[in-house]
Design goal:
The chain is about 40% helix and about 20% strand. With about 475 residues, it is an alpha/beta fold. The chain folds into two domains: about 250 residues, Aldehyde Dehydrogenase, Chain A, domain 1, CATH 3.40.605; about 180 residues, 3-Layer(aba) Sandwich (Aldehyde Dehydrogenase, Chain A, domain 2). A seven-stranded mixed beta sheet has the order 13-14-15-12-11-17-18, with helices on both faces. It is globular.
Length: about 475
């Protein structure tokens, strides 16, 4: 049983027990039309609010998130299975994002003066209008906040279409935004089914679209938006490489590998998925990785001691299970895990497959769940070749004690981010996004803030000799 969208109802399900949580009525066409009208009207005012007023409201939003952290976190845990500790950390990260942009957003949008033959010329950054944000379930708050915070600070208003199985979280986001004092329609959650999206993307009141999701979803939405010449930013799947060179601190790399792969129950676009290890340290890394993985506590995600909960939906568990099976049939060796949990809900044991090579499902495809592929590389150059032998290019890790060499190698990796001796993570201060089939455009930092603005040239002149 998974979240189901009937003709006018969405039902959410607790993945830890496979039992129903709640029913939500979807918005009908008249309600969608009214919501888009209100959003467009709100933008007419919001776009002209001062940067200081927007910053004050964003600080209030951070406070509201922290005040409601316990309830918001438990809701995410119940709707998609995230451990309660990770859910609370996600709420705090959203609050930090609000604080960061409240402090630095105005500077990122300041006019940039350029010396030309005019008496004055400058570049200004004007909001585009109503931004449609289509977001996934795996980080139900963070995915939405990293889109809405910079966009709203820039003077846009946001309409959110969230994944069906986290509808409760989506509505909670709307409540905390309004509680913080933002104008009522500056942010709106639409409770709609996926088949309603084409008409919404095409609607003239929508100025641009940002999507985080699968490659298939990104391609479909980009095609819809492209037909209407609308700007899009896509953050799609990933099959991040975690490269361990022969000179790396193997114990440190193996310990971090567990967190990098199994955080969020293994359901993260930027989770490390392909562990590419130079031959001299392959056996030592694999042994340590397996040992640390077997120490993970699996259980009810609402219990604070739990480190690994269920997958968010049954179909996700079935897909992961099939990838593991197909890979083993082609010669991958099961080092640990590889079985469903012995409890109700959508549990799958943390799994490590060794001796993986290209052509196996866990190498070629994105794995969205607690399964890791360990690949032996002949040498440094083979590590880079294997890392780039993927249609995805979101993030990646590189472990080495030779930092200067690692920095040089980073330029050879086809990914939107490279983390040296650490775990890939998004940060409001740094741009986030990928290349190849991991999408295009950037979120976060000043780069993300400027994705959904009109970069307007203002020229005043001509210059006069004095």
């Amino acid at each position: 049983m998974t979240a189901v969208a009937a003709s006018n109802t969405i039902t959410t399900v607790d993945p830890a027990t496979a039992t129903k949580l709640a029913d939500y009525s979807t918005h009908d066409p008249a309600a969608i039309d009214a919501a888009l009208d209100r959003a467009k009207e709100a933008w007419a005012t919001w776009r002209f609010t001062s940067s200081s007023e927007r910053a004050t409201l964003m600080k209030a939003l951070a406070a509201s998130l922290r005040f409601h952290k316990s309830d918001l976190a438990l809701l995410a845990t119940r709707e998609m299975g995230k451990t309660i500790v990770e859910a609370e950390a996600e709420i705090e990260k959203c609050a930090v994002c609000c604080d960061y942009y409240a402090a630095h957003g105005a500077a990122a949008l300041a006019d940039e003066h350029v010396s030309t033959n005019a008496s004055e010329s400058y570049v200004a950054f004007r909001p585009l209008g109503v931004l449609l944000a289509i977001m996934p379930w795996n980080f139900p708050y963070w995915q939405a906040f990293r889109a809405l915070v910079p966009a709203m600070l820039a003077g846009n208003v946001v309409v959110l279409k969230h994944a069906a199985n986290v509808t409760g979280c989506a509505l909670a986001i709307e409540r905390v935004v309004r509680e913080a004092g933002f104008p009522g329609a500056a942010f709106t959650t639409l409770v709609v089914a996926s088949h309603d999206m084409e008409a919404i993307v095409a609607d003239a009141r929508i100025a641009a679209v940002t999507l985080t999701g699968s490659e298939a979803a990104g391609s479909a939405v980009a095609a819809m938006a492209g037909r209407h010449l609308k700007k899009t930013v896509l953050e799609l799947g990933g099959s991040d490489a975690f490269i361990v060179l022969a000179d790396a601190d193997v114990d440190a790399a193996a310990a971090m590998a567990v967190k990098a792969r199994f955080q969020n129950n293994g359901q993260s676009c930027i989770a490390a998925k392909r562990f590419i290890v130079e031959a001299p340290v392959y056996d030592a890394f694999l042994e340590a990785f397996v040992a640390h993985t077997r120490e993970l506590r699996i259980g009810d995600p609402a219990e604070r001691a739990t480190q690994l909960g269920p997958l968010a939906r049954e179909d996700l568990r079935e897909a992961l299970e099939a990838q593991v099976t197909r890979s083993r049939q082609r010669g991958a060796r099961l080092a640990t895990g590889g079985a469903r949990g012995d409890r109700p809900g959508y549990y799958y044991a943390p799994t490590i497959l060794a001796d993986v090579v290209p052509g196996m499902a866990v190498f070629d495809e994105e794995t969205f769940g607690p399964a890791a592929a360990v690949i032996r590389a002949r040498d440094l150059n083979h590590c880079i070749t294997l890392a780039n032998a993927s249609p995805y290019g979101l993030g990646g890790n590189l472990w080495s004690c030779d930092i200067e060499r690692a920095k040089s190698l980073a330029s050879r990796l086809e990914s939107g981010a490279v983390f040296i001796n650490g775990m890939t993570a998004s940060d409001p201060r740094l741009p986030f996004g990928g290349v190849k089939k991991s999408g295009y455009g950037r979120e976060l930092s000043s780069y993300g803030m400027r994705e959904f603005v009109n970069v307007q040239t203002v020229w005043i002149g001509p210059a006069h000799n004095r």
